[in-house]
Design goal:
Blueprint: H1 15-21, E1 31-38, E2 44-46, E3 54-56, H2 58-71, E4 75-81, H3 98-109, E5 114-119, E6 132-136, E7 139-143, H4 144-161, E8 165-168, H5 175-185, E9 192-199, H6 206-211, H7 232-244, E10 248-252, H8 258-268, E11 272-275, H9 278-289, H10 295-308, E12 313-315, H11 319-325
Parallel strand pairs: 1-3, 1-4, 1-12, 4-5, 5-8, 8-9, 9-10, 10-11, 11-12
Antiparallel strand pairs: 2-3, 6-7
Helix pairs in contact: 2-3, 3-4, 4-5, 7-8
The structure holds ligand PBG.
The site of ligand PBG has 11 residues, from helix 6.
Length: about 325
């Protein structure tokens, strides 16, 4: 064999050399911890399809938030489960709604933590859709502009309670602009918007719908969430949200959509987030339980891939574990 000029393996020959040339490094600052706060839970309630993830009372959510901060995390994302639902989602924007109360409690107990709120109506609607619906015969419609008005009200109520960032996940048209306008009108110029700009109609939300008690009672979400087949449309969606004033663009789910993450990050140069969703979480948990791979190694590889693909921020149910795992 001719002498080789290039031997890429040279830089892989020891842990120290590999550490020196590693391009993507994870830290606790990369991760956002989702918390499910429920008005119906005494303390904590384990979610069957998401091992280790719980619905929390406000007091338990405060404990989690304080613990998150101690572990080195900087942000939590709140979801609310109200005591009762109706067909106008009134609990979503109630001054004393579950999320509004949780934001105030967490901000008081852990002022350094960035509190992000999910802005959507599905947990608050008796029918489980993300907006106001109208049925006509066999068909139902999720009404866009009527929904946007309620989302804007919800976002303002979260900001008034003290949320640093609001994260609309509904996929209605024009909601970022409407929310930005409503926040500004209410004097919340400094409340930012993480837009779920590109949210696909995915099977991987299954376990979440148990966690948030929000499965649609009829039909599906394909008339508002995106078709998984579309990439050009994903860029158009992101462009609209940039124009309308989104501060951060989020792509969801994560692993099956790394091409989208990369393109959105490259094209817009905005802080870009991914949501590693409940079904992706459950898959890895199941694989690890079956002995297919070790959980920690699998999670670190996946999170590294998300960051390498362009994600600046990662919403993940492993955020607490990752804070510890990435310290060493
Ligand atoms: C609510 C919402 C969903 C998720 C986040 N916000 C579910 C859905 O659209 O059905 C999914 C998160 C996850 O699966 O972890 N609109």
């Amino acid at each position: 064999m001719k002498p080789l000029v290039h031997r890429p393996r040279r830089l892989r020959s020891s842990a120290a050399l590999r550490n020196l040339v590693r391009e993507t490094k994870l830290t606790a600052h990369d991760f956002i911890l989702p918390l499910f706060v429920s008005e119906k839970v005494e303390t904590r309630h384990q979610i069957a399809s998401m091992p280790g993830v719980e619905q929390l009372s406000i007091a338990a959510a405060v404990e989690e938030a304080k613990q998150a901060l101690q572990l080195g995390l900087q942000a939590v994302l709140l979801f609310g489960i109200p005591a009762s639902k109706d067909d106008a989602a009134t609990a979503a924007f109630a001054e004393n709604g579950i999320v509004q109360q949780a934001v105030r409690a967490i901000k008081a107990a852990a002022p350094g933590l960035v509190v992000i709120t999910d802005v959507c109506l599905c947990e608050y609607m008796s029918h489980g859709h993300c907006g106001v619906t109208r049925r006509d015969g066999e068909h139902f419609h999720v009404l866009n502009d009527e929904t946007v008005a309620l989302l804007a009200k919800t976002a303002v109520s979260h900001a008034t309670a003290g949320a640093d960032l609001v994260a609309p996940s509904d996929m209605m048209d024009g909601r970022i602009g409407a929310i930005r306008h409503a926040l500004d009108e209410a004097g919340h110029h400094d409340t930012g918007i993480i837009s779920y700009a590109v949210k696909f109609a995915s099977v991987f939300y299954g376990p979440f719908r148990e966690a948030a008690e929000s499965p649609p009672q009829f039909g599906d979400r394909r008339s508002y969430q995106m078709d998984p087949a579309n990439a050009a449309e994903a860029l158009r969606e992101a462009a609209l949200d940039v124009e309308e004033g989104a501060d951060v663009l989020m792509i969801k789910p994560a692993t099956p959509y790394l091409d989208i993450v990369w393109r959105v990050r490259e094209r817009f140069g905005k802080p870009t987030a991914v949501y590693h969703v409940s079904g992706e979480f459950a898959m890895v948990k199941a694989g690890a339980e079956k002995g297919c791979f070790e959980e920690r190694a699998a999670v670190l590889e996946i999170m590294t891939s998300l960051k390498r693909a362009g994600a600046d921020l990662i919403v993940t149910y492993w955020a607490k574990e990752l804070a510890a795992w990435t310290r060493s």
